[in-house]
């Protein structure tokens, strides 16, 4: 998997904070700017740290409640659902 694709299918290189506030999910082991200080993003924590996956790709629960609860508040319901579908597509194509 491309090192700039996070375990949840986001492309870190497309984020406006990449190389500014964040080096990307994989580079910082999920301890991204939006996660509670010192903790990994809940999705990274589950997929990588807890289950030992490289990504959520092979998880039988994809997308799970953790995905649905880890939401960008700037997105509308429709945009958020589209984001989930796009991230799954990225993960399944890698």
Major sheet attributes: none
Gap from first CA to last CA: 6 Å
Please state the overall shape, judged from the principal axes of the Cα atoms. globular
Q: What count of domains describes the coordinates?
A: 1
Number of helices: 3
Strand share of the residues?
A: under 5%
**Structural class of the secondary structure composition?**
mainly alpha
The H-and-E topology, N to C, reads as HHH
The total count of strands amounts to: 0
Q: Roughly how many Å is the radius of gyration?
A: 12 Å
Q: Which runs of at least 5 residues are low in confidence (pLDDT < 50)?
A: none
The overall pLDDT, averaged over residues, is 92
Report helical residue fraction: 25-40%
InterPro entries: DUF3795
Pfam family, one: DUF3795
Protein name: DUF3795 domain-containing protein
Notes on the protein architecture:
With 94 residues, this protein is mostly helical. It has one domain. Helices cover 33% and strands 0% of the residues. It has three helices and no strands. Pfam families: DUF3795. InterPro entries: DUF3795.
Task: Describe, in short, the structure shown.
With 94 residues, the chain is mostly helical. It has helices at 42-50, 65-69, 77-93. The chain contains 3 helices and no strands.
Key terms:
DUF3795 domain-containing protein; DUF3795; 33% helix; mainly alpha; 94 residues; 3 helices; 0% strand
């Amino acid at each position: 998997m491309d090192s700039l694709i996070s375990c949840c299918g986001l492309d870190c290189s497309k984020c406006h904070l990449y190389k500014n506030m964040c080096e990307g999910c994989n580079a910082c082991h999920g301890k991204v700017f939006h996660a509670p200080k010192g903790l990994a993003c809940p999705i990274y924590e589950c997929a990588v740290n807890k289950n030992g996956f490289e990504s959520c790709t092979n998880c039988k629960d994809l997308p799970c409640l953790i995905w649905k609860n880890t939401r960008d508040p700037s997105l509308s319901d429709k945009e958020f659902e589209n984001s989930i579908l796009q991230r799954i597509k990225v993960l399944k194509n890698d």
